[in-house]
């Protein structure tokens, strides 16, 4: 099959180590924003459309594995190898809170109503922090069966999704009871997961991938395409219904650790071992890729993920009409 090349990406420089996590905010009155996590310990926030650097959150003393923004893009959160999760003012860059853990924090997520922060990591404990009472002890959910890699809120903050680094499966937790209510079995560990607006919890599609895949993201508006990136350094675009590859984007100089669609679905971002973030437009073009000059202040994030499978286990989960980007 002839691979169609996509257009010229926006290349965001700045991170000095691999970019390991990306997160788009919903569209706000000021636009959408993209936050990145990197092993260089400095999460960065950018304009989600242009990739222009806005600010760097300084304070972690170890690799940052996870990052997110709240619904209004007013606060950011990050989880780090320095055994902490931090909450930041996304407008000023000020550190608002630092929540100490007893091991590496691999995942964090704000609730849809922005009042709660969920964290998980190598302690195998899911913790919920009340942003209205940040000095209070967090609520601890039942012990996770493995080290937590990914977390997400769904069902209007009534449920939690989690995946582990050391075992397969996607787990659905009931927030009120703190118990696992359902497990979606997978053949390998799940290295990335996101929540869509459809109400099913179960396997919808499974695709054979051309390489070991570390991250995937579903187009949020129509759900008719998905992207995947992994060890072959390419960013692949596929038809959701047929699994046929539509576009293959080459440009990164290292494995692709994370991919995310923008909230409107018109573009998508990829983060790599090479320390750059690239923002690609969805439509294909014949133009050759050209790198933009480094931003004087900008940095990029990088992430590494553990075991990667040769299949993406596709599933849909509701988040009350607001898909995660």
From TrEMBL:
Ranges of Polar residues composition bias in the record: 283-295
GO BP, sorted A to Z: spliceosomal snRNP assembly
WD repeat placement: 57-98, 98-139, 249-282
One Gene Ontology cellular component: SMN complex
CDD domains in the cross-refs: WD40 (cd00200)
GO MF annotation terms: RNA binding
UniProt keyword annotations, A-Z: mRNA processing, mRNA splicing, Repeat, WD repeat
Pfam families recorded: WD40
Annotated segments matching region Disordered: 282-303
Membership in a protein family: Belongs to the WD repeat STRAP family.
The protein, known as: Serine-threonine kinase receptor-associated protein
UniProt source species: Oryza punctata
């Amino acid at each position: 099959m002839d691979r169609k090349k996509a257009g010229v990406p926006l290349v965001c420089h700045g991170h000095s180590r691999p970019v390991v996590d990306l997160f788009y905010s919903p569209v706000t009155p000021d636009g959408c924003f993209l936050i990145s996590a990197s092993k260089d310990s400095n999460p960065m926030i950018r304009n989600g459309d242009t990739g222009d650097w806005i600010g760097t959150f300084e304070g972690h003393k170890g690799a940052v594995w996870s990052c997110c923004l709240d619904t209004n893009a007013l606060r950011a959160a990050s989880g780090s190898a320095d055994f902490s999760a931090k909450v930041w003012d996304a407008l000023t860059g000020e550190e608002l809170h630092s929540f100490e853990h007893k091991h590496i924090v691999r995942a964090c997520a704000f609730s849809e109503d922005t009042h709660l922060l969920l964290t998980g990591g190598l302690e195998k404990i899911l913790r919920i922090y009340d942003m209205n009472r940040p000095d209070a002890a967090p609520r601890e959910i039942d012990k996770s069966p493995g080290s937590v890699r990914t977390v997400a809120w769904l069902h209007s903050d009534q449920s939690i999704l989690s995946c582990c680094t050391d075992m397969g499966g996607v787990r659905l937790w009931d927030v009120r009871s703190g118990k696992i209510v359902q497990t979606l079995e997978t053949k390998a560990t799940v290295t990335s997961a996101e929540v869509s607006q459809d109400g099913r919890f179960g396997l919808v599609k499974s695709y054979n991938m051309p390489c070991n895949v570390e991250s995937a993201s579903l187009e949020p508006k129509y759900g008719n395409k998905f992207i995947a990136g992994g060890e072959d350094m390419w960013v692949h675009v596929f038809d959701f219904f047929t699994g046929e590859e539509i576009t293959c984007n080459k440009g990164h100089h290292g494995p692709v650790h994370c991919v995310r669609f923008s909230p409107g679905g018109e573009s998508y971002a990829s983060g790599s071992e090479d320390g750059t973030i690239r923002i690609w437009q969805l439509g294909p073009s014949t133009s050759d890729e050209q790198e933009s000059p480094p931003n004087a202040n900008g940095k990029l994030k990088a992430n590494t993920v553990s075991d990667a499978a040769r299949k993406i286990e596709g599933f849909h989960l509701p988040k009350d009409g607001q898909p995660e980007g």
